[in-house]
Amino acid sequence: PPPRALTSTALPRTGWDAVQQARVTTRPRAEAYLDQYFTHRRDLSGDRCGGTDPGLLCGVGLHDGRAIAYVAQCGTPTRPAGYRTAARVVRLAGRVGIPVLTLIDTPGAANDAEAERAGAGAAIAELFSAVAAARTPLTSLLIGEGGSGGALALAAPGNTWATADSYFSVIAPELAAAILKRGPEQVPRTADQLRLRPQDLVELGVVRGIVAPDH
Fold first, then answer.
1. Mean residue pLDDT across the chain
2. How many CB atoms lie within 10 A of CB 158?
3. CATH code for the part of the protein at 15-204
4. Could you tell me if 152 and 106 are in contact, meaning their C-beta atoms sit under 8 angstroms apart?
5. Exposure string (b/e) for 32-45, b if CB count within 10 Å is 16 or more?
6. What is the rounded distance in angstroms from the CA atom of residue 119 to the CA atom of residue 3?
7. pLDDT(74) > 70
8. Do 100 and 58 touch, CB atoms closer than 8 A?
C-alpha cells in the first residue's frame, strides 16, 4: 500500500483551493513521507551521465522487512538528470525483483535553457518508457503539485493514488488562463474548469482513490 497521508486536510471545495493547498510551504514533503514509511533507506544518486538532481530522492528502503525502491519528487521542477536517475532506479528494481514506490510533487519539469541543453524531452521520454515497461509492481502517490508531463512521468498506470492536499493538471491554471487570454482574476475559474481536485481525479479515473490520513 502507499504511505498514509501525513496531513488531515479536508478535500478542497474548488479547483483553486486545491492548488493553494498543494502550494502551502509548510505541508509535508517527500522526505517526511519516506521517513514515515521506511524503517531504513539508502539513497541512490546520479544518472550515470554526470548529472544529479537534488530535488529528486531515489533509493531503496525497508518497509515491514521488505525492500522497496523509491523515486520521490521534492516539490521543485524536476531536472533531466532526475528523470534519468528515476529511470535507472525503475530498471534496477526490475532486475533485482523489488517493487517501486513513486511520490509525485512537482510544478512541472524544468524548462530553462540548461534543462533543454541537458535533453529534458528525451529524459522524460526515457522515464515514461521505463515505467511502462516496469517488470515489478509500481505504486504512485500524488502528495502535492502534479504539474503536467513532469509529474505524469512518475505516475504508475492504473495504480496512482492522491492525498487530499494535492492536485494534478495538464497545465498550471495561471498558464492555462494566459493561453486563453484571460486576466489574472479568472485564474480561479480556470482552475475549476481544469478539474484538478483530488475528487475530480478519482471521478475522471486519473487516480484510484484518495489516501486518508489513517491509511
1. 92
2. 9
3. 3.90.226.10
4. no
5. ebbeebbeebeeee
6. 32
7. yes
8. no
